[in-house]
Structure formats: C-alpha cells, structure tokens
Amino acid sequence: LQLSLEAAFPASAGRFAAQCRLEVNKAMTNLEVFKLAGSIFERSGEQDTPSVATLLTHMGVARGDSGDHQGALEAFWHAKRIRKVTDSLETVAGAVLLWNMGYSFEQVGECDSAVEAYEQARRVRRATGTLDSPSGARLCKAQLALAQGAKYRDDKKNGSSFPTTAVTSPKSDFGDWFY
Prior knowledge:
By secondary structure, this protein is mostly helical. The protein contains 8 helices and no strands. α3 (50-65) runs parallel beside α5 (92-107). It is globular, with a radius of gyration of 19 Å.
C-alpha cells in the first residue's frame, strides 16, 4: 500500500500530493490502532487496568479522528470507568482522557458536558502540577473558545446582530486531539 501511495503521489508532485499521503498514512494509523486494540481486548478480556484505559483513550481518539464522535465517547466512557475503578483518573493520563471527552462532547453539540469535562481536566492538571505545561495552556484555550462560543450563541438567541466576543476554534489552533 505504501509503495502504491508513493507511485500515485510522488514526493516531487508538490504540496497536494504530500497532503494526500499524510491523510492516507493517518487513516492507516487509525486502522492499525483499531486492529491492535481489538486484538488486545480479545486476549485480555474485561481487565480493568490503567493500560486498558489508555488503550481505550487511543481508540476513542482514532474514532473521533474518523468522525465517529459518538463512538469516541463510548470508548472514553469505558476508559473513565476503568480510571475511576483503578484510582487513576487523577493523573495526567486521566486529564488527557477528560480533555478528549470534552472535545468529543463539543463535536456532538453537548456543550454543558464539554464544559464539565474540560473543568475536570483542568482540576486534574492543577492537582498534578501540569496546568502550566503546553498541554495545560491548550486546555485553557479550549475552555475559553468554548465559553466564547456559548456567549456568541446566547447573544444570537437574545437578538444581538453582532457577537460581543470573538469565537475561535481550538481545532484551528492546535489540532483535533490532545495528548
């Protein structure tokens, strides 16, 4: 497949070809994550370990990346249950999970749930001393963008013809998924 991709989109073909190769590689990576996760689950059964929660988080990211945000949320909910049972939700990995849950909630229009997930992720980042990290800063930026979007929606509902705040998308600033 990789050789066919190179033949169809040679490196000398320019920026468009590079973008096409990147998208195909991304899709192949997502497929590999699904296959690996399925294989591990078949062998391990219903084990509640932090490693399985991390795997489920990666599966959720792969599902969301392919546009299946409901499927992503299912994987994230299962991962969150495991993190609670194993007392590992209050870790950096737990913050990553909560952040990704918030993003998926945003994508399906559940803004209240997104706000709650982002706030939980922020609390965990603060507790683990990682709120001042680049990932913590991006989390704060995502929270601000969501709040600005809510303010804009409220302004429109109340008849204002111009938003009182700027609306920015976290995706445009730092990508879809967060680690």
